[in-house]
Amino acid sequence: GEDVEQSLFLSVREGDSSVINCTYTDSSSTYLYWYKQEPGAGLQLLTYIFSNMDMKQDQRLTVLLNKKDKHLSLRIADTQTGDSAIYFCAESRYGGSQGNLIFGKGTKLSVKP
Amino acid sequence: EPEVTQTPSHQVTQMGQEVILRCVPISNHLYFYWYRQILGQKVEFLVSFYNNEISEKSEIFDDQFSVERPDGSNFTLKIRSTKLEDSAMYFCAGGEGNTEAFFGQGTRLTVV
Known about the structure:
The complex is a heterodimer.
Chain A: E1 4-6, E2 9-13, E3 18-24, E4 31-37, E5 43-50, E6 55-58, E7 61-66, E8 71-76, E9 85-92, E10 101-103, E11 107-112
Parallel strand pairs in A: 2-11
Antiparallel strand pairs in A: 1-3, 3-8, 4-5, 4-9, 6-7, 7-8, 9-10, 9-11
Chain B: E1 5-7, E2 10-13, E3 19-24, E4 31-37, E5 43-50, E6 53-57, E7 65-68, E8 75-79, E9 88-95, E10 102-103, E11 107-111
Parallel strand pairs in B: 2-11
Antiparallel strand pairs in B: 1-3, 3-8, 4-5, 4-9, 5-6, 7-8, 9-10, 9-11
């Protein structure tokens, strides 16, 4: 069945770049998403990429998609302590519908000063 | 900035009782969703709702679950007879279209 996998932890120093990786299995996924969850808060949509793109940049965030390898990454440039959170990768299940997202378990990013 | 709000933030209920989790989506949203996250596990899709009816639901969303949008603003999830394994964080989400979803802060449901 469909599955999304992420490493559980990532630790970086303030000012460095962070790269959070994700693999997915459903080749028919149309959209892939990155969400951020801060402690006690909901899931904040950071960015998403359409499957016919291989890169999307939004300020400090860069999303890379390798559709052949079913690999998605999120790069955060100049990581700040405020970026410490759990980052979830998700894929859409039914060809573009947000209704049924398959989430990874989340990567906990710790940023050390 | 408008946001999706959920109440209560934490609900404790006895096994077998009915609970209603409430959500107030952003006013221009047309698509509504419920997800849940059992502690230590992945966020799981429950149901999507569009045009006053369920558009998709997962295997988790069985007969003990129901959703309503009774007054055009609130969006509710009802669990008829709660079980211990229903303990989870329940997230409501909404979007104008079906490519973005904005989540609420969640309701933590504890069934004892």
